[in-house]
Amino acid sequence: MSSSFDPHRLDVEAFAQQQALLSGHASLADYPRLASEARPSPEQPEATADERAEVTWQARGERRRGADGVTYPALHLQADVRLALTCQRCLGAVQVPLRVDRHFLFAADEAAAAALDEACDDDVLALAHDYDLHALIEDELLMALPLVPRHAECPEAVRLSAQDAGFEAALAEKTQPFAALAALKGRKAH
Q: How many distinct structural domains can be found in the chain?
């Protein structure tokens, strides 16, 4: 990692001007919101996630032309991690690779960012001299999570019914009060 730029307090304008590059590897524990989405490790069920998972990221400063033709400070962010999530089909662990590859333009303020964002394919953020790159990485990886994590093919057969043979037998044995009333009514008619 470059020592001239701090990813927790990044001067985006200077970073883009120098076309600088930052990269790093960090434990999933350094990203607590992302870690809370991961399945606990079987070796440490009390932990929030498998702490061996590692987030790898790279950010490159650049200048990019917006939809309005103006050149803005920009950031090209790439990040990836492999998370253990819970398969929503079989409820077992499924390894899900998350990958982010996005460009961000930085406008002068929130109003300018909102106006430019409407016409631009890149995401547009407000320019800051102390931007938290790690928070952006975590936000983007959270948005990359699948809505319904699942195996392409579950390792074990998935039980698609909540009922078993004993359920039907118990239902048949259960007293049916309205059936008893119908039988009483039928006896009076004779």
A: 1
Q: What is the pLDDT of residues 57-72, one digit of tens each?
A: 999 999 999 888 889 9
Structure-token pair, residue 141: 């990886």
Domain presence at residue 179: no
**Average pLDDT taken over every residue of the chain:** 85
Shortest CA distance to 90 belongs to which of 172, 158, 171?
Answer: 158
Domain assignment present for residue 81? The answer is yes
Residue 26 forms beta bridges with which residues? 55
In a domain, 181, yes or no: no
Dihedral, 159, 160, 166, 171 alpha carbons, nearest 10: 170
Q: Is the pLDDT assigned to residue 8 strictly greater than 60?
A: yes
Q: Which domain holds residue 65?
A: 12-160
Does 134 map to a domain? Answer: yes
| Cβ neighbours, 10 Å, residue 122 | 19
The 10 Å Cβ neighbour count of residue 21 is 14
pTM: 0.75
